[in-house]
Specification:
The structure is a single chain. By secondary structure, this protein is of the alpha+beta class. It has a domain of about 140 residues. The chain is about 50% helix and about 10% strand. Helix 7 crosses helix 11. The protein is elongated. This is Peptidase. It comes from Elizabethkingia meningoseptica (Chryseobacterium meningosepticum).
């Protein structure tokens, strides 16, 4: 019996393209794996934030009533200001299906007044203390890896780009060399009765293939937010070669700010905005300095954002100002490239594919996405372990 003699390596007949893809898939996957797991798990948690908070806080759930007028954000602003006159109201937010919120300076639950959007009744008062918010913590991990933004943001963004490359290279590795019946069965089905090594390989290979398209969409829509060069590239391709127009900075008010005029300006702005589009929810950004405008976002759909519209108004008079942002025009009036941009968030979380059912599908796909670095590592580990073991004869 000879111990320690390894079998001679078989000659690799794969193409150079395949071998480069295999190398990229392995080392890029190992380098970014833990970050991808965190991105996927925090992403699916955040995407169901509304449903979870509705369940935990049923008193804050207020369904949209067709035909019944909501109290305008101007009325809620005055109510919030009257209740706490020494606090500055920074925003009024009425998510579709929820109570209206008046924020006092910070986007933290401890600084939010919850108001019934139809009756004006106070549902919950703020504590004016910093409160831990699990979903804010989750979003911080999803966007910054719980690191300072200047460090965490590029780590997240380029890990997503690396994940995109590993998905493409994974398809190259998955592609059957020959489309025989046996190879098709191996490529499209999991052998559940197999030993752990083969089962792990199938979970990585087969589930990765079925999840591929949606994972690519999630990765690309994520890169849209984080990588300016990809944002420009996406616009260039979807507009058939047009250069992304440089967006003007939001118009600033140059006239002297007169805070006593703000409530009336808010009324005028709201009455103008609701003539332009249906609103099941809205977000009002209240001017905080001497130059900010009134910024109003209207949400025509329940927990979908592709068709939201953004309007800017003069803070003293409530007159409409020009606005060149992505959401300044309606979805129907937008060109194809702008429609892609408007759809980006809904495509990222799955609500573009049938609302809650699309997000459930994305939940399952993202579980697969989170598992790929783990099963991929185990594929490498099992192979490495086999190579390192001496052969017995």
């Amino acid at each position: 019996m000879n111990i320690g003699k390894a079998k001679p390596k078989k000659k690799n007949h794969r193409s150079l393209f395949y071998r480069i893809s295999a190398w990229l898939h392995l080392w890029l996957g190992l380098a970014s794996g833990i970050v991808i797991v965190i991105i996927c798990l925090t992403g699916i948690t955040w995407s169901f934030r509304d449903e979870i908070t509705d369940w935990l806080n049923p008193e804050l759930k207020v369904e949209y009533i067709p035909g019944k007028a909501m109290l305008s954000p101007a009325v809620l602003y005055e109510k919030a200001k009257k209740l706490y006159p020494n606090q500055e109201v920074s925003f009024i937010w009425r998510p579709a299906g929820k109570a209206a919120m008046a924020g006092y300076g910070k986007r933290n639950s401890g600084f939010i007044l919850y108001i019934h959007p139809y009756t004006g009744d106070i549902i919950r008062k703020p504590s004016f203390k910093e409160e831990f918010d699990f979903f804010d913590w989750t979003l911080n991990g999803h966007r910054f890896l719980w690191l300072p933004s200047e460090i965490g943001r590029p780590v997240i963004n380029y890990s997503t780009f690396i994940f995109f490359i590993t998905l493409i290279s994974g398809l190259v590795l998955w592609w059957p060399k020959k489309w025989t019946k046996a190879m098709r069965k191996q490529s499209f089905s999991v052998k559940w009765s197999a030993k752990i090594k083969r089962l792990n390989y199938d979970l990585h290979n087969v589930f990765g293939f079925y999840a591929l398209i949606i994972l690519l969409v999630i990765a690309m829509t994520g890169m849209y937010y984080g990588l300016p060069w990809f944002n420009k590239f996406l616009y260039f391709t979807t507009s058939l070669g047009k250069t992304d127009p440089k967006k003007r900075v939001e118009l600033k008010n140059t006239a002297e700010y007169k805070p006593e005029r703000l409530p009336e300006a808010l009324h005028i702005a709201w009455n103008d905005a609701i003539k332009k589009t249906e609103a099941k929810g809205y977000y009002l950004s209240v001017p905080q300095d001497s130059t900010e405008t009134i910024s109003l976002f209207l949400y025509p759909s329940h927990r979908q954002f592709y068709n939201l519209q953004n309007f800017s108004y003069d803070r003293n008079t409530g007159s409409l100002l020009s606005n060149s942002s992505t959401h300044a025009s309606s979805f129907e009036q937008a060109d194809f490239a702008t429609k892609v941009r408007k759809l980006n968030y809904d495509l990222h979380v799955g609500s573009a594919l049938g609302g809650i059912w699309g997000r459930i599908l994305y939940f399952l796909i993202s579980i697969v996405g989170a598992s790929l670095p783990i099963t991929g590592f185990l594929v490498w580990w099992f192979k490495k372990k086999k190579i390192s073991q001496p052969q017995k004869k």
